[in-house]
Amino acid sequence: xxxxxxxxxxxxxxxxxxxSTVGTSIEWYDFxxxxxxxxxxxxxxxxxxxxxxxxxxxAFLVYAVGFIARPIGAAIFGHYGDRIGxxxxxxxxxLLMGIATFLIGFVPTYSSxxxxxxxxxxxxxxxxxAGVGGEWGGSVLLSMEWGxxxxxxxxxxxxxxGVPVGLVLxxxxxxxxxxxxxxxxxxxxxxxxxxxxxIVLVGVGLYVRLRVFETPLFQRLLDERKxxxxxxxxxxxxxxxxxxxxxxxxxxxxxxxYIFTAYIFTxxxxxxxxxxxxxxxxxxxxxxxxxSFFSIPFFGYLSDRLGRKRVYMGGxxxxxxxxxxxxxxxxxxxxxxxxxxxxxxxxxHDAQYGPQAALIAETYTGRLRYSGASLGYQLASVVAxxxxxxxxxxxxxxxxxxxxxxxxxxxxxxxxxxWYILICAVISLIAVSTVRERSKQDIxxxxxxxxxxxxxxxxxxxxxx
Length: 465
Description:
By secondary structure, the chain is an all-alpha fold. The chain has a single domain (2-210, 227-457), classed as MFS general substrate transporter like domains (Growth Hormone, Chain: A, Up-down Bundle). Helix content is 77%, strand content 1%. The protein is built from 19 helices and 2 strands. A hairpin with a 6-residue loop joins strand 1 (399-400) and strand 2 (407-408). The model is unreliable at 1-5 and 453-465 (pLDDT under 50).
């Protein structure tokens, strides 16, 4: 009987990992599709009468709306994830994200309905961001809470694996359509086709996720009637410090990532300073994402062996140095060195992203884990992911900060962007150094119910009365 139960648990763990990875791959496909399209052509399609730099800033401002929405989605879906379960909430986020992405493919451009096209983009981008805000926490917990007894770093890294998969799918779809439609066809209708395909991927994701049971850890909370009535409010009151730690430790991972995968199209592709072809840069970023297929789970595994903090801090230090090497290689304008820079660009990111899911999720006790992990993870989007391409554009080319009358004089040098990455790394290094190592903690028991010695030794504390 015990053997049968073990086999069933292994089957469910495998299904949970597959469901999490497939689901996050689809969600990130949707999110990155918009990111890449913004860098490639949205400025021309939706802000054609603006100065090129201003148009780019406006397009990235709409792009940033998705990041502003992510903490909001984290609060909404974190509440339901801790109240009704991981599985049901994840189905809702997948539907929300997929339908919003599908509808973006139908948005008329400026030439058809003027500024209303940009307004529709803002609305749909906000919905996208809310969906992603609720997706990450649930996907990580669906895997980690089924596989909590063993290699949590490796198990939790598989939903992170969805990021490079989504990036490859998004860039690959745009690359294929760019070649099929040609320059004029791509600008008029070709870019829309990958957005339409999102609805097909959503169907696949739903099929996979419906076959997974609720996690045993959350089911135990239900059975023992330990569900928090207001988990978001409770985790903010109880773990506000940990939420801020989770957000700031992500600066050196998230801000550079969106410079390497979104701003790069503005910087490197014609008419940017490197004057490379759009398809060449798409190809380079896609190949870099393929390398992450291996590096993200590798660093997740390494964190099980060496500890989360040690691996993560190594990635932060590498990122602080890498910004200068990356732009140094790009600015040679030699195709081979540009390819090398982009190909290796995500390794310092992956050294953080691999162990990051477990590092953040382990911080919070089970009944508050969805809310706490989601809020901490997604709060970084407001200060890192969303602003990063805008800050990079302002640092290099200058311009008026969107929504203000403040004019910034650009440095016209990529060194300024490298310094920005270094500053993010310093902040993250301070944040992660204050996080307590919990890779060996038993997450199946509520932290405030564990023996006093275990709580103190692992840096947790009992819930206030």
